[in-house]
UniProtKB/TrEMBL annotation:
Similarity comment text for this entry: Belongs to the CcmB/CycW/HelB family.
A GO term from the CC aspect: plasma membrane
Localization (cell): Cell inner membrane
Name assigned to this protein: Heme exporter protein B
Organism: Thiopseudomonas denitrificans
Keywords in alphabetical order: Cell inner membrane, Cell membrane, Cytochrome c-type biogenesis, Membrane, Transmembrane, Transmembrane helix, Transport
Species lineage: Bacteria, Pseudomonadati, Pseudomonadota, Gammaproteobacteria, Pseudomonadales
Topology of this chain in the membrane: Multi-pass membrane protein
A single BP term in Gene Ontology: cytochrome c biosynthetic process
Function, as annotated: Required for the export of heme to the periplasm for the biogenesis of c-type cytochromes.
Protein origin, superkingdom: Bacteria
Length: 223
């Protein structure tokens, strides 16, 4: 099973490198939102620093959401999803490899880019580790939850709006905790509690969402 997981991960990586636009678009969107915000509210450092926790997390959430509509689209169109459903391998393991590849090539680069953009907003350099920790825990949750909606709407021609309506309510707790941990760090308050909650949510998402994604795919392909 480990070999199947690894082979599917390599396959997804190769496919993503053939479609560089899908990798770059979320990063460009994330950067543009944060770069334009100081132009809208002004260059006042204290104001930008106060707003930076919410802004970084809203931009990250929307950037992840932007990449989700096509997560299973190409596999659905070429019949790969049907082969996954009838495969003897557990469908939950296969979709977990798919989501992991999606996060490695869209979510992880976003995490690595965030310190530069956060410094532009006046976030102190000694708070950057907290930002990285929160995004490393939070963005996989966004990808896993988003994949549930993507699986349910993959069979629809214009499922993007429905996907957004399905997933955004599930994103709210992650958004609250992610921005909350940065606000606590800026105020000099303990952040361990926030990070532990996010770690618990990530563990729960890794455990349960593959089952929900597999069920959504079965519904979409009509099996």
């Amino acid at each position: 099973m480990n070999r199947v997981f690894f082979l599917l991960l390599v396959r997804e990586a190769r496919l993503m490198f053939r479609r560089p636009g899908e990798l770059v678009n979320p990063l460009v969107f994330f950067a543009i939102v944060i770069c334009l915000f100081p132009l809208a509210v002004g260059p006042e450092t204290q104001l930008l620093r106060t707003l930076s926790p919410g802004l970084v997390w809203v931009a990250a959430l929307l950037a992840v959401l932007l990449s989700l509509d096509g997560l299973f689209r190409s596999d659905f169109e070429d019949g790969s999803l049907e082969q996954w459903v009838v495969s003897p391998h557990p469908l939950g393991v296969l979709v977990l490899a798919k989501v992991l590849a999606h996060w490695l090539f869209s979510g992880l680069p976003l995490v690595l880019l965030s310190p530069v953009l956060a410094l532009m907003l006046g976030l102190p350099a000694d708070r950057i580790p907290v930002l990285l920790a929160s995004l490393l825990l939070g963005t996989p949750i966004l990808s896993l939850l988003g994949a549930v909606g993507a699986a349910l709407t993959v069979g629809l021609k214009r499922g993007g709006i429905l996907l957004t309506l399905l997933i955004l309510p599930l994103y709210i707790p992650v958004l609250i905790l992610g921005s909350g941990v940065l606000q606590a760090a800026l105020q000099g308050l303990p952040t361990a509690g926030y990070l532990l909650w996010m770690g618990s949510m990530l563990t729960l998402a890794i455990t349960l969402t593959p089952l929900a994604i597999a069920a959504g795919i079965k519904i979409s392909v009509g099996e």
